[in-house]
Amino acid sequence: MALRTKDKNRRALSCPARKLAELAQAEGLPYSVDRSAANTFDVHRVRHLARAHGVATPLFSTLQRGYFAGEVNPFDRDELVKVAAEAGVPAEATRATLSGDTYTGRP
Asked: Where are the beta strands (DSSP E) in the chain?
């Protein structure tokens, strides 16, 4: 019985997302409901790094557009490095940020 309730809740939660996908597609915008979800901490750290390079807005726009279209997984570090490099952030700087404490708020 718990499984049925869980499945019913999952279907109910997915209805608004599917409706949103339909609305986006009607406007010609790609939108996927089947995409990964995870902690965005590293994405925001890289966004701070991109700001230091003057490309925060283009980076974040590319990440959002790709994520909602189901084409970019910003939770994959290699993919995040690639998108940041395409926006103008040196790949080695992004890797150093992701492997260290930069922009974590930790001393």
From this structure: none
Burial class (CB in 10 A: 0-12, 13-18, 19+), 27: exposed
Contact 33, 17 (CB under 8 A): yes
**pLDDT per residue as tens digits for the range 49-85:** 999 999 999 999 999 999 989 899 999 999 999 999 9
Half-sphere exposure (CA, 13 Å, Cβ side) for 85? 12
How far, in Å, CA of 12 to CA of 70, rounded? 21
pLDDT tens-digit readout, 11-58:
444 678 788 888 888 898 888 777 888 899 999 999 999 999 999 999
- The C-alpha atoms of residue 71 and residue 89 are separated, in whole angstroms, by 20
For 89, left (φ over 0), alpha (ψ -120 to 50), or beta?
beta
